[in-house]
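Entry 14. Structure prediction run on the chain below.
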Amino acid sequence: MKKTTPVINKAKPFLKWAGGKNQLLNTIRNFYPESLKKNQCSCYIEPFIGGGAVFFDIVQNYQLKYSYLSDINPEIVITYKVIQKSVDLLIEKIAELSEQYQSLNLEKQKEFFYQIREIYNQDRKDFNYTDFSDGWIKRSAMLIFMNKTCFNGLFRTNKSGEFNVPHGEYKNPTILDQENLINVSTLLQNSDIELADFSQSINAIKDNSFMYLDPPYRPLNKTSNFTSYSTSVFNDFEQQRLAEFYKKLNCNYKIYLMLSNSDPKNENPLDNFFDELYQQFNIHRVSATRMINSKGSQRGNINELLITNY
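Output returned:
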C-alpha cells in the first residue's frame, strides 16, 4: 500500500482519550506562550501525550525543530511508534479488522468485539513492549479498532491492566481513517517517543522549550475517580511530585510551562489543593465541558485549571 500525500493542517487525534483536549483547544490556544506564537520555540515537550490534541495543534501551526512525546501507558506509546514507523502496515491490519466487523450483523459484531478484546488482554501477559515487532502493529490495530467500537470510545483498564470497556453498539463507526493516520505519521517523523515517567522528560529540554503537562486529572469526587490509564495510579502524592517537578524546571531551565488539571472548587469552594501547590504561578480557571460521564445529566460546563509560569 503506497503512502498518499498528506493533507496539511488536517491531522487530528487518532484515538478518543479520556481527558482529551479537542473540545478545549480554542481556549488553550489563548494561553500558548508568545514565544511559541512568534515561532521562537523550537522544541515542544509533552510527557503525558494521551490523545495528543495539543501536540497536533502546535506541530501544524508553529515552526518546531523537535518534539519529545512520552507516556507511562505502554499501549499508547507503542501505537504512536507504530504510526511513526509502520503506518502502511498498520492501515492494512485495521482495514482487515474493519472489513470483518462491518460484514457482520449487530449481534455478531458484539461477539467479534469481545473476541478481539479477549485476545488483546491475553496477549499482554507476556507481550514485549521494548522491542519493535510485527506484534506491535497487530496490537496497535486492535487498540484502534476497540477505541472506535467500544462504549464512549475510551481507554480504561482494570487493576490487572486488562482493557475492560464494553462494546459500543454503534451502527456504522469509522474504524479506519487512513488519511488521518498518514498525516499523523508525517507529523511524528521529528519526534522522539518514549515509554517514560514524566520526570524523564527533563532530558529532552533545549533552550526555549515549551512543555505542556496534562496528567490524569485529580478526581472532583469519588464517583469521578478516573486516574488510572495504565496499571499506575496518579493519586495526590503523584500530583505533588508533579508540582515539585514543575517548580524544579521553572527554577533551573529556560522553559515555558503549561499544566492542565481539574478545579476542585467545582465541588468544594474551600479545596485549595492546586492553589497551594502552584501558588507562585499563574492559575487560570477556564470553562470546559465534562464529556465522559456515565450519567448524561452530569455532563456539562465546569471549570478546569491552566497553570503557566509565564
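The radius of gyration is 19 Å.
Filed with the rest of this week's runs.
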